[in-house]
Amino acid sequence: MSRAARKLILPGILVGLLVAVVLLAPVLPLADVRMMDVPGRFSGPSAEHWLGQDEFGRDVLARLIWGGRASLFIAVGSALAAAVLGTTLGLLGGYFRGVVELVTVRASEVILCLPPLLLALLVVTLLGAGTGPLILALTLLYTPNYARVVYAATLQVRSLDFVTAQRAMGAHPLAILTRTILPNVLPPLLVQMSLVVASAMVIESGLSFLGLGVVPPTPSWGLMIRAARGAMEVAPMLLVWPSLALAGTILSFNLLCDRLQSVLDPRQITAGGALWLHRPARKAAAAPQPAAPDAPLLRIRDLAIAVEGPRHGLDLVRRADVTVLPGQTVALVGESGSGKTLTSLALMGLLPDRLAVTGGEALYTTREGTTVDLAQLDDEGFRRLRSTEISMVFQDAAAALNPVLRIGDQLAETLRVAGTPEAGIPARVVDLLRQVGIPDPERRCRAYPHELSGGQRQRAMIALAVANSPRLLLADEPTTALDPTIQAQILQLFLQLKRDTPGMGLVFVTHDLAVVAEIADRVVVMYAGEVVEQGPVAEVFARPRHPYTAALIASVPEGGAERLVAIPGSVPPPHAMPPGCRFAPRCDFARPLCEAAAPVASAPAEGRSTRCIRWKEVT
Amino acid sequence: MFDLGTSPAPLVEAQALGRNFPQRQGLLGRARDIWAVRDVTLAIARGETVGVVGESGCGKSTLGRMMMGLDAPTTGAVRFDGRDLDTVRGPDRRRLARRMQMVFQDPFGSLDPRRSVGAQVGDGLRIHGIVPPADIGAEVARLLDQVGLPASAASRRPHEFSGGQRQRVAVARALSTRPDFIVADEPVSALDVSIQAQVVNLLMDLRRDLDLAMLFISHDLHVVRHLCTRIVVMYLGRIVEEGPAAQVFGTPAHPYTRALLTATPSLQPRRREAGFDVLPGELPSPANPPSGCPFRTRCPLAEAACAEAVPEFRQTGPGWQAACIKARPESVA
What we know:
The structure holds two protein chains of two kinds. In chain A, 48% of the residues lie in helices and 12% in strands. Chain A has helices spanning 3-6, 9-23, 60-96, 98-109, 116-127, 131-158, 161-169, 173-210, 221-230, 237-264, 340-348, 379-385, 397-400, 407-417, 425-435, 441-444, 454-466, 484-500, 513-519, 537-542, 547-554, 592-596, 615-618, and strands at residues 289-290, 298-307, 315-324, 329-333, 355-365, 370-373, 390-393, 472-476, 505-510, 522-527, 530-536, 609-610. In chain A, a hairpin with a 2-residue loop joins β10 and β11 (530-536). In chain A, α3 (60-96) packs parallel to α6 and α6 (131-158) runs antiparallel to α8. By secondary structure, chain B is α/β, with parallel strands linked by helices. Chain B folds into two domains: 12-24 and 31-99 and 179-322, P-loop containing nucleotide triphosphate hydrolases (Rossmann fold), CATH 3.40.50.300; 113-178, no CATH class. Chain B has helices spanning 60-67, 90-97, 117-127, 136-146, 163-175, 193-210, 221-227, 245-250, 255-263, and strands spanning 12-20, 23-24, 31-32, 35-44, 49-53, 75-80, 83-84, 100-103, 181-185, 213-217, 230-235, 238-244, 314-317, 320-322. In chain B, β11 (230-235) and β12 form a beta hairpin. In chain B, α3 (117-127) packs across α4. The two termini of chain B are 31 Å apart. The interface between A and B is large, with 60 and 73 residues. Chain A: Keywords: ATP-binding, Cell membrane, Membrane, Nucleotide-binding, Transmembrane, Transmembrane helix, Transport.
């Protein structure tokens, strides 16, 4: 049985039991629900009456089960009827919009304007008390809820590409509604359903309690609560049983609908634990060592990043070696899943919660000339380095900037954290914005992020990153989301920043080889979590020494090749890494030897390295 | 209006196409016109791949949707095989849909996550009765094979595939109805380089084997240049240059095309010491376009005359024209 189906066992059994007991009421050996036994009124549980007797001496257990029959029938019946009606209205209104929306969703919303109890009273008064009118009243009451939920979900789904694809296919609108849209609006529908069943039971109880629902002597939970209330001082337990039944039933239905919703989702969402359950990384921070005078700005050796916890051994990055000299631009390049972003996040201490650095070292030389191992640093240590020593530009500036704070305030905040004197901050903010090329900085510093265009947001993001003059700037795909002319502007800005601050090292993470060629001095090519080749950009691109680098360059549609070189297959997922060389299964040069052991690094030339045993034959 | 030279009669034709998305300001405010596409005239013949390039907001996706008949034009008309798409409705329109298909940018959004790949590829076959119901399974397998996927893929759901594989599924779905015309809206932009090459190669093979007319929308100039026979460059909803790929990208006649080409990073970087030849400023708001030539606010060649009227197309070669009063073929350094 799949893990998903197993989640359904508990709520399934609970609801199944409930339904079975209620359905089997006529054949169960229960006492007659109307049989009065006045001498035995209010007597407690006994062998004959397991839950005791009520104010007329009737058996409470029998009345509870028969009452459940009425309550459940009304609640589930009206919830289902309202679901069918409301879903139809919502689907039609959401898909066709316009006039259809007016006569379906908007019309049903009129009902929402009436007080629910008043509406129920109206129906019951017109049609008389009883189960039928009650179901009708509740159905009317809940239809607009469904209609609205389904309408909102339909609006969301109808604009998705796969619905457009169905339209383009020439599918009939009704076929699109039932086959494509309905299954995709089902999750919110189920949540709504569980809420409505619960709420219908409460209203049924309430109406019965008022004497407008189920007619005595037919038992229902609402009637039982009503009767027990009068005798609360004498027999408090009489109130407890129907209330417990009501609460238990509602909880079981909620659980079932919740689980059903997660099972129906084909994408398995890995459940993340609560934030306070993540234990903070407790590492013995090594004392900073004085650095050698010619030490590079950053030297990463043999860095490994893995998933923590029971699935230990799932290494996402391993054997990463990168060296950054002051003033140098190093590009980390690779496809998605290559570990290039994780490597850069590890340098900032920003790895996602369940990931951790599990080996190797990342020696950073600070402004004071001491060496810090970033692989061993704790949160406090990173806090001291961030912004003033190491800083980062993120890919999506729209997501990385705080939407409710003005750009100038965010910059001021960053400057303040680094201890800039308060008096100098406003002028420095304007200076920074001018430096990154935002026009009219005096006025623009009062703008919110959404008021800036994509290119300007990225500029503001860069201003934030360089505010405290970091010595190492990490840029994670900073131009990927931008248009060509804006991308050129931002690349230009990076070049200019490097000219202005000669000692700053730049680590540029990208998947775009052409961008690498334009901006970087050295390139580090990563594949499936490993560094496969590195060296000076011009040399590596002119004569790649690893089959992956060679194939990557040949797959760029530049130059006159009639056919592009496509690398067959795709990057293996972390849990299914091939033994030996990770590129071997997709490699034209692969030999049996490649799968035996991971290749060691060779140095084809000064300052270059490659992890391929046949590097001499590549180009 | 333009010279088709020796090309065959067009399959799809857009005549002075325009799309307005009026935006109301406040409850009682006047609606402001926002033209996503203006005055686009374009023809695509069988076996021809027309590339549409431009930056986000230039109207290229809206143009694609209108050419597919998914969006109704505000002005002008789209004619497919001689029939005005706007006048064909109901069952007739759905039958016509068989002959035109679309491949979307995001392979994660264009497939229904809840249905198997086989069911989705088979939809078109069922809807249009292309093969007898009994043969649908075999036909789906053939289609999947055509895009390089195993037949076993049919029973799996989209989330089990990688981005490149999903995009192949999307292509297989588009091919299922045996269309004559395909609109591909940024089909490789969301893919990794090596995977992108797989899909580009696939599209080239299909064009050759099936004699398709294709509208290929992309902001990646290298891919467009590699794949397309003719190029349309758009800026702020208008075509600024149109012509054969070799000419438009070899010696662009419009200053915007030149700027786009210089801005595109290359494996062989040019003039690195001097930095990039950067086009200043950003795309103007379509709600408030500049008078006259839409590009004049950023154009290095702009002069007073540019603000007076939208420039007419000037013929710069056979089937090659640019909307600029200073249009002149010039190679990009």
